[in-house]
Amino acid sequence: MGITLNEPGERISPDQLNAYMEFDHVIEVLPTGLVRPRADIYAPSVCGEDGIEDDAWQPLKGYSSQGSGIINQAENWHMHDCESVGGQLARDILARPGIYVCVYITWPPDAEEVEDGDTEPDETTIEGWCVLFQDA
Q: Are 45 and 107 in contact (CB under 8 A)?
């Protein structure tokens, strides 16, 4: 997925964007509307307890159809596993130039939930995902 920064990109339709945006693979939407991968930018991690590890990234909010316990749906940025980058989310991404990435939201193991006989807590849990954005 290597690319030079001079590569023009390709035209992606909203119904193709979900397949194009692989998890942890950063893309750029150019002012021309073309899309290209950005292997030179790393995808940040997102912990459900601590948030986004890099302040340069902002979550896209209000696209999940799931409640996630948040009263104000417009502030919700946690996407459920059954959701995808499609519909209005895809159209909005393609209409706004910038850098985007889909990442999983993880939760650390709970040390208090050690099962009988285990000496180690459970593995890190993936609970949902989100789309992050930053200006190009």
A: no
pLDDT tens by residue, 8-50? 789 999 999 999 999 999 999 999 999 999 999 999 999 977 8
CA separation for the pair 6, 79 (Å, rounded): 33
Q: Where are the domains of the chain?
A: 14-134
- Asked if 79 contacts 129 with a C-beta cutoff of 8 angstroms, the reply is yes
**Interatomic CA distance for residues 72 and 5, integer angstroms:** 39
Amino acid at site 26? V
Q: Which of 100, 38, 48 is nearest to 69 (CA)?
A: 48
Tell me the pTM: 0.82
